[in-house]
Every structure is written in C-alpha cells, then in structure tokens.
UniProtKB/TrEMBL annotation:
SMART domains: PKS_MT (SM00828). InterPro entries: CFA/CMAS, CMAS, MeTfrase_dom, SAM-dependent_MTases_sf. GO terms for biological process: lipid biosynthetic process; methylation. This is Cyclopropane-fatty-acyl-phospholipid synthase. GO terms for molecular function: methyltransferase activity. The keyword Lipid metabolism applies. It comes from the Bacteria. Pfam families: CMAS. CDD domains: AdoMet_MTases (cd02440). Keywords: Lipid metabolism, Methyltransferase, S-adenosyl-L-methionine, Transferase.
Length: 429
C-alpha cells in the first residue's frame, strides 16, 4: 500500500479521462498531484468504497460528512475544481456504458477496488435522511422542515448572526456588514409590497420572525407569520414579545394550506417556495392568490436553477436532498413565473440577486468556521460538516451561475386592470 496517493491519483485520472486538478494526500501520508493546488485529504480507504458504490455527488458527500475526506487550502477553489468533474459532466450514463467496454477502464476499476480494501461500503452517516412515503403531504413537509430547521436555534445564531435571517441578503456595498445587508433585504421586500400602516401581511415561512418584526416595527402593518418548525416559532414569539409587538405580530405553527383567515393586503414568501415541490406549486400559488385582496401583492423570493436542454420535470440535488433540504426542488425562474400567472397573478417584476447570495453564503461560512468547536458541540461533527459543505458549495454555484435567486413581484390585479403599480420600473412605493 506504499505511496497510495500516487496510485489513487493515477487511477482517478485514468477513470475520468482528464487531469485531476487537486493534490491528493492519502491515509498513509503520501501525496501526489499539482504542488500548488488545494489538497484533497483522504483520511481513510472507506471514502473510496463509498465512491465506488455510489459514484458522484452522493458518494463524495457521505465520505465528507463521515470525516473520511477533507480539504486543505482554499475550500471554494477546491469545490470549484471538483465540481467540474462531478456536477458539470452532464448525463454520464452512456459515457459510463461505453467506458465499461474499454479493457483499460475495467482494469482501473479493479485496481481501485483493491486500493479501497474490503468490498462492502459502510452504512451512510446518521445525518442522512431516508425518504419515506409520498412527497409534500402535510406530514412529510413537517418532517422535512424539522430536519433542516430544528437543528437548534443556538446553532443558527452562530451561522446567521443577530439578524436570524436565513435567506439571501441585499448588498448595496460588498464591504457592508451582514446585519446591514439583511436589514436592507427586508426593507426592499417591504418597499416592493408597498406596505402601509394598518395593512395585513402574511409571511409564509416566517423563520425566526425577522421579516414579521421588521414589517410591523418599520411599516406599522399587522403580521401573521407561519412556519412548520416548533423551534422557530418559539424563538420568533420571544423576539416579538421582546420587541413589544405582540399586538401586531402573530406567529403560528401552521401549514400554508391551512390558512383560512384572509384576505391579506400583502404576502411575503422568502426562501420558502423551494420546499413546495413541483407537483404542489400551482396549488401553492392558487392558495396564496385566494388569500390576497384584489390589488394585493405577493413577493416570492426563491432560489432557481438554470434550465437544461430538453428537460422534463424538476431537478433534485442528491446531496441537498439527503442531508440538507429533504424533498426540496429547484425550478427555473421561467417555470415559477408561469405557475404564478396560471394561478391568476400578474407578474410585474423579476429581479435576479444571484451575486448577493454568494456574498451572503461566504459570510455564513466564515461565521461557522470562526465558531467551529461550539457548532460541533451544539449539533454533531457530521452535521457541522454538512452545513459547511452545502453553504460553501452553494456559494460557488451562485458565483458560477449554476443556480440563481430571484424576487418575483406579482399582483392579484382586479378586473378593472388597476394594478396599483408605479409607472416607472423599480420605484417601490
């Protein structure tokens, strides 16, 4: 097993058919690859078994979460380099079928199996979710939300900071602080919704209450915030009480499908629609449309992915689905606009803020890394590693335009056609 890194590096390059852009350090201390590149540290041969039995993203994720793989050097550069080998190779099914007919390829696989050791892969890390039952029922949605958001409010305080806003900030200055950028995002949403004192706002997926508190305090509206997370609701209610806003803000543990006390003058849905699912999205849009008064506005803030050629259906990311957002689905922004308009909305504005999310995620990763030991104590080593990987990889994905985030402003325009929108674009009143 001497010089495992050289063997591993050569075999991977042979299997991929391209140079490996990172340096490798193996479990025996040996190293191979470009001397100035980030280092992929393979702590244990189990990582190879995971990759051989589950090639691609999910195998890599399992080894990372289990602590069998690590990266030294620039994490973002390493993820960008590796993503070109994993996430951007497209549908490799036919490529793999052709490769299996190549005797050299088969020999390389056999050699890699020998290097990996005992044949059976270990069980997935305990942080991995195993899907059960139908998608996007009330019960499965509650379970999925609980998996992601009930990690612990103390953990989220580390990552998000005092604002406790878990969505893309809005940066007028890249050098500004995270708190200011999040406050600017909340204010931007309020301006787009044209909130005025006395109106009713429904905040769907209210999180820890930041949007509800901001809208009530700064714009004098009455807010109902709904979430499926018990921990979020308890935290948000305390924040509302501490702000002296219990007469204007109500936080409920409630599914959006169960809200029946409309009409509302405005609805904000910030970072929630990704959880709805393709099969439910039109019904979700119709439910929100029915809750608005004529002339009422919806601000839908949602991550979207780039469309693929000749695609059908929605894309599900294996790592994200297994470890981060179970049952989450990303759609191209054009699909979102179409579904909103099919529900009856008039879409009046779409603003892409993709680069803003990359800045936000890098700040969250820095906060997590600064308090790594405490984050591990509050959750688990595997869970902290999940969050670091998903946030850093997502930052790279936003920077490289693999995914985006859009604020879609839609109006329940009355039959008279009077939308109430300003004549000039992006003049929010």
């Amino acid at each position: 097993m001497a010089d495992a890194a050289s063997r591993l590096h050569a075999l991977v390059e042979q299997l991929l058919g391209v140079p490996l852009p990172v340096r490798v350090r193996a479990w025996d201390g040996s190293q191979a690859g470009p001397p100035d590149a980030p280092v992929l540290v393979v702590h244990h041969r189990r990582a190879l078994r995971r990759l051989l039995f589950k090639p691609g993203e999910l195998g890599l994720a399992r080894a990372w979460v289990a602590g069998e793989l690590d990266i030294e050097g620039d994490l973002y550069l390493a993820l960008d380099l590796i993503s070109g080998l994993v996430w951007e190779r497209g549908d490799d099914t036919r490529t793999l079928a052709r490769a299996l007919g190549d005797p050299g390829f088969r020999t390389a696989v056999r050699e890699l199996l020998k290097l990996a050791g005992p044949p059976l892969p270990p069980a997935p890390p305990r942080e991995e979710v195993h899907r059960r039952g139908h998608l996007h029922t009330r019960r499965t949605d509650r379970r999925a939300i609980s998996h992601h958001y009930d990690v612990g409010n103390d953990f989220y305080e580390i990552v998000l900071g005092p604002s406790m806003v878990y969505s893309c900030a809005y940066w007028s200055d890249p050098g500004a602080g995270l708190e200011q950028a999040q406050d600017d995002k909340l204010e931007l949403v309020c301006r787009k919704l044209a909130l005025t004192p006395g109106q009713r706002l429904l905040d769907v997926g209210c999180g820890w209450g930041s949007m509800a508190i901001h809208a009530a305090r700064e714009h004098g509206v009455r807010v109902v915030g709904i979430t499926l997370s018990q921990e979020q609701a308890a935290y948000a209610r305390k924040r509302v009480a501490d702000a002296g806003l219990t007469d204007r803000v109500e936080i409920r543990v409630q599914d959006y499908r169960d809200v029946t006390d409309g009409p509302y003058d405005a609805i904000s849905s910030i970072g929630m629609a990704e959880h709805v699912g393709s099969e439910r999205y039109l019904a979700y849009a119709r439910d929100l449309y029915a809750l608005l008064t004529p002339g009422g506005r919806l601000l839908n803030h949602q991550i979207g992915r780039r469309p693929e050629r000749d695609e059908t259906g929605y894309h599900v990311d294996e790592f994200i689905d297994a470890y981060v957002f179970p049952d989450g689905e990303l759609a191209p922004v054009g699909d979102t606009v179409t579904q909103l308009e099919r529900a009856g909305f008039e879409v009046r504005d779409v603003e892409s803020i993709r680069e803003h999310y990359a800045l936000t995620l890098r700040r969250w990763v820095a906060r997590l890394e600064d308090e790594w030991a405490r984050a591990v104590r509050l959750t688990s080593p595997g869970r902290a590693r999940v969050w670091r990987l998903y946030m850093a990889a997502s930052a790279v994905a936003f920077e490289r335009n693999r995914i985006g985030v859009n604020q879609v402003l839609a109006v329940r325009t009355p039959q008279s056609g009077a939308s109430g929108m300003p004549l000039r674009s992006r003049v929010w009143q």
